[in-house]
Design brief:
Blueprint (H helix, E strand, L loop, with lengths): L1 E4 L2 E4 L5 E7 L14 H14 L3 E5 L12 H18 L4 E4 L3 H10 L3 E4 L8 H9 L2 E5 L11 H18 L7 E4 L8 H9 L12 E2 L6 H6 L7 H13 L4 E4 L2 H14 L1
Parallel strand pairs: 3-4, 3-10, 4-5, 5-6, 6-7, 7-8, 9-10
Antiparallel strand pairs: 1-2
Helix pairs in contact: 1-2, 2-3, 3-4, 8-9
């Protein structure tokens, strides 16, 4: 399966792509928020593209546990200059990480070509129509309130993601442009996150491009005792595991290092 996103050709299953994270927030869990510093955020994204990122994901509202929600105007003020700058200075697809249709619409008009929704269209289904109208790709992530699962974890995640895919396709997004994300760190305990990585290949049955975001996540601390500043190697191990179990895209903060990890794991796969 292949598609064109932002003028670039992506062949799902043939190679693994790296998505670089550009946080235009003041309270990123990973400590790299650049709210109010668009020039620095743009430079960071340009550097990531040069290091091998095939996509850049720009977000203006933290989703860390206990985060403070922001209104649409604030989020737009944070992300629009960054999206515009990156679209002008790089040739990689720009993703807008938002749950707000107004933010997604403005970002798409400013040059973004991917919408990344952490609620998988279950909170704002109109995001699918916006992506379809702009010819954009759509990342639908698994998420839920709380960490209770009444049945098998991967079965529940797969069913919820299948619903998201159906919503996207019904709205007009081509199936090959609908990317699924199991949502490490969202609505899951630390143990759940490890189980998702261990059983990731089961989600290949969805038949969709698969994105995984293990970078610097707190489960590395809770399960393996790694503090934030010591999580690069834990991230590398998780990225390698994700690639070996079928990931098509890995979303990371440390692009140069993780590109090397991906290439080796890809070769082993």
């Amino acid at each position: 399966m292949e598609t064109i996103i932002g003028g670039r050709r992506f062949v799902w299953g043939e190679r693994v792509y790296v998505m670089g994270v550009v946080n235009a927030t003041p309270d990123s869990f990973s400590g790299d928020g650049l709210a109010g510093r668009p020039a620095e955020a743009i430079e960071q994204g340009v550097r990531m593209a040069a290091e091998g990122a095939a996509m850049l994901d720009v977000g203006g509202e933290s989703t860390r546990p206990g985060h403070t929600a922001v209104d649409g105007a604030t989020e737009l003020e944070r992300v629009l200059p960054v999206v515009e700058g990156l679209a002008a200075r790089t040739d990689v697809p720009i993703s807008i990480d938002t749950t707000k249709p107004a933010v997604a619409k403005a970002a798409l008009e400013a040059g973004a070509t991917i919408v990344n929704d952490i609620w998988g269209l279950h909170s704002a289904p109109e995001l699918a129509g916006l992506a379809a109208a702009q010819g954009a790709a759509l990342v639908v992530m698994h998420n839920q309130d709380g960490t209770d699962y009444s049945r098998d974890l991967l079965q529940e995640i797969a069913e919820r993601l299948r619903e998201s895919v159906d919503l996207a396709v019904a709205a007009g997004v081509p199936r090959e442009r609908v990317i699924v994300d199991p949502g490490l760190g969202f609505g899951k305990s630390a143990g759940h996150n490890v189980e998702v990585l261990r059983r990731l290949e089961e989600l290949r049955a969805l038949g969709q491009p698969l994105l995984v975001g293990p970078s610097r996540k707190s489960y590395l601390g809770r399960v393996f005792g790694l503090e934030l500043e010591d999580r690069m190697m834990g991230t590398a191990a998780s990225v390698a595991a994700a690639v070996l179990r079928g990931a098509d895209i890995v979303r990371v903060h440390d692009v140069a290092e993780m590109v090397r990890v991906v290439r080796v794991a890809e070769g082993l796969r």
